[in-house]
Amino acid sequence: MKLKLSLVVLALAAFAYAQDAGTDVKDAAKDTGHATKKAAKKTGHATAKAADKTADATKDAAEDTGHATKVAAKKTGHATVKAADKTGHATEAAAKKTGHVIKKGAKKTAHGVKKGAEKTEDAVK
Question: What is the C-alpha radius of gyration for the chain, rounded to an integer number of angstroms?
Answer without folding.
Answer: 53
